[in-house]
């Protein structure tokens, strides 16, 4: 181990020597570098310390970017940190998205206008509790045996194309060019990944350095453990650590000093809250603990990035999942118990943090934010439109309908998310009582002759269920992708059904239909019909309701209490998954830009249960669990 430490110490000292040169090159002009002699950063040649907040532009509508950035600045923060999400900007190998909600350059310019420096984290892997850690799903169908986050040349080929595109675009906004970007992260917490491919990190650093040069400081972020920094640091990038309120500040920075002997102390991810999975209590961190630990770090001269300062929302199907012993998909909400709520409202934690920052940094002359008004738009009666298994629904939403002897994955069907229906007819003559075995990634509703009989679950480790009189019948397995793994080993997380047998015998032929569900526009011309309530034994149902807004639309929350599990769309905008039966999230955040004056439309795809009232309600206060301040 000490041999490894010595190697990393040499690497760190080499990086120190290189970055010392940057100081002289940036003095008297724009630039950002490290003054190793005095253990401080230099911004345009002057001593500088940052207190930053993480805010991911892809987790709130573009309409709110300036509002959230200004609230960061009003809290005394002088920098903002954001990931760049590969899957957002390159949704297909030959498609790039840089406008509208994906307008990264606009976001960076707004940050500069609001007086914030930028810590940019382009990945390629970002984790961030996002689907596949921000990697595009199509990597899994282009190279099925690909090795993520290694020097696998097939993977690196796609990474190089992506990073070249990003780094060329952001170059004019690097600090050395007069822009707001002072630091650019190389990969993300690589020390937490089991591959520990040093050559991979070297290749990435060289690629970043080619574009960034001395115009910004390259850095790495890893947990404050020796084994993590052993694999995470790389020559030519400044080594930083991350830790939360329950860590010992002195010990954490001592670990950093093993690999980064000189230069300013940095906590690149200080956690004022935490992430939450479906089916567990909402995770909270008390404001007093946050305030105490932040004060402790700032009192020793450290720079700090607060992750998250504003969390936002995993709209659509963008939330990821954690693995390990249990598969745990994450909530649609990314409120994170952060200082700013999912709707951008300040919390007591916001003001506690502001009080600490005011002791160390000059405070801006900005209006202190207040809680914004919310819209109380009442209940909406939801009426059925069409069953998902109906031939018309299959025509409108079905994609890649095939007949096959082998079970395809979502990825081989070119489906990034949604549902896949696997159907087969069992021959007559078998026993009345049978056993179905299937491994589902991630959750499958099982039907016999279009009647719901059970559920297969990766989370619950349910892979075997009894079937009564299935022979001579049609068996249907409707599989839901609940989010690709975003963290840890085994991230090559294919979605599908595996080892499917009835009484130990495989099924010879399948009819397969994929449902992408990225839009509900085809339903707008369909009339509502009378709908039943209770368990949806005959398959998922699309439902529609309409409501009217008088005056300017306001943010609101859609209360899904009493319903089963599904997806909600407001005026065509996918609000994300709801699952009140699992909790703790009961409401979906509805931003005002998704609403309009006059008539509005809510569409649901409900998978499992419709309450007797057949109503959903808009409320003014979110229901995320026990998120009380302590």
From TrEMBL:
Enzyme class: hydrolase
Residues covered by the Glycoside hydrolase 35 catalytic domain: 40-359
Domain Beta-galactosidase galactose-binding residues, every copy: 540-600
A GO molecular-function annotation: beta-galactosidase activity
Highest rank taxon of the organism: Eukaryota
Active site: 189, 269
Catalyzed reaction equations: Hydrolysis of terminal non-reducing beta-D-galactose residues in beta-D-galactosides
Secretion signal, residue range per the UniProt entry: 1-17
Occurrences of domain Beta-galactosidase 1-like first all-beta (ranges): 409-513
The keyword Hydrolase belongs to this UniProt entry's keyword annotation: yes
Keywords: Glycoprotein, Glycosidase, Hydrolase, Signal
EC id: 3.2.1.23
Similarity comment text for this entry: Belongs to the glycosyl hydrolase 35 family.
Official protein name in the record: Beta-galactosidase
Organism, as annotated: Cephus cinctus
């Amino acid at each position: 181990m000490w041999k490894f430490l010595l190697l990393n110490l040499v690497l760190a000292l080499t990086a120190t020597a290189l970055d010392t040169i940057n100081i002289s090159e940036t003095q008297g002009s724009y630039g950002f570098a490290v003054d190793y002699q005095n253990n401080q950063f230099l911004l345009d040649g002057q001593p500088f310390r940052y207190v930053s907040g993480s805010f991911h532009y892809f987790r709130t509508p573009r309409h709110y970017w300036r509002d959230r950035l200004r609230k960061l600045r009003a809290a005394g923060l002088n920098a903002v940190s954001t990931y760049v999400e590969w899957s957002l900007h390159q949704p297909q190998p030959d498609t790039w998205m840089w406008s509208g909600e994906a307008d990264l350059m606009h976001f960076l310019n707004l940050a500069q206008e609001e007086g914030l420096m930028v810590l940019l984290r382009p990945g390629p892997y970002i984790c961030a509790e996002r689907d596949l850690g921000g990697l595009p799903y199509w990597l899994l169908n282009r190279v099925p045996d690909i090795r993520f986050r290694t020097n696998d040349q097939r993977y690196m080929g796609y990474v190089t194309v992506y990073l070249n595109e990003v780094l060329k675009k952001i170059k004019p906004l690097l600090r050395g060019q007069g822009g707001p970007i002072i630091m650019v992260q190389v990969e993300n917490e690589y020390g937490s990944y089991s591959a520990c491919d040093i050559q991979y990190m070297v290749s990435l650093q060289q690629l970043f350095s080619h574009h960034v040069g001395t115009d910004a400081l390259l850095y790495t972020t890893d947990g404050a453990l020796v084994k993590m920094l052993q694999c995470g640091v790389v020559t030519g990038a400044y080594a930083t650590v991350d830790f939360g309120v329950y860590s010992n500040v002195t010990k954490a920075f001592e670990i950093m000093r093993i690999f980064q002997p000189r230069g300013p102390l940095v906590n690149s991810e200080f956690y004022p809250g935490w992430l939450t999975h479906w089916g567990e209590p909402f995770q909270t961190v008390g404001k007093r603990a946050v305030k105490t630990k932040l004060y402790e770090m700032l009192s020793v001269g450290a720079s700090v990035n607060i992750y998250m300062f504003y969390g936002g929302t995993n709209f659509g199907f963008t939330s990821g999942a954690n693995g390990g012993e249990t598969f745990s998909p994450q909530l649609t909400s990314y409120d994170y118990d952060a200082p700013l709520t999912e709707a951008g409202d300040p919390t007591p934690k916001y003001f506690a943090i502001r009080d600490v920052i005011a002791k160390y940094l000059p405070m801006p002359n900005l209006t202190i934010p207040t809680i914004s008004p919310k819209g109380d738009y009442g209940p909406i009666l939801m009426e059925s439109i069409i069953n998902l298994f109906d031939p018309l629904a299959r025509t409108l939403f079905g994609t890649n309908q095939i007949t096959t002897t082998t079970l395809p994955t979502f990825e081989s069907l070119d489906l990034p998310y949604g549902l896949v229906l696997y159907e087969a007819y069992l021959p007559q003559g078998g026993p009345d009582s049978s056993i179905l075995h299937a491994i589902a990634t991630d959750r499958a509703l099982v039907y016999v002759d279009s009647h719901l009989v059970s559920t297969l679950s990766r989370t619950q480790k349910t892979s075997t269920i009894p079937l009564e009189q299935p022979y001579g019948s049609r068996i249907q397995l409707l599989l839901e992708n609940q989010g690709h793994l975003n963290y840890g080993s085994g991230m090559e997380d294919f979605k599908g059904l595996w080892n499917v047998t009835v009484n130990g015998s495989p099924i010879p032929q399948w009819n397969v239909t994929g449902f992408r569900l990225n839009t509900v526009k085809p339903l707008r011309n369909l009339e509502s019909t009378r709908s039943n309530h209770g368990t949806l034994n005959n398959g998922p149902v699309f439902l529609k309701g309409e409501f009217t807004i008088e005056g300017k639309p306001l943010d609101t929350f859609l209360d899904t209490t009493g319903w089963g599990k599904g997806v909600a769309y407001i005026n065509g905008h996918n609000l994300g998954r709801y699952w009140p039966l699992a909790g703790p999230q009961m409401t979906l955040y509805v931003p005002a830009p998704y609403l309009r004056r006059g008539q509005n439309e809510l569409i649901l795809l409900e998978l499992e249960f419709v309450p007797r009232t057949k109503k959903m309600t808009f409320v003014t206060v979110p229901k995320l669990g026990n998120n009380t301040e302590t």
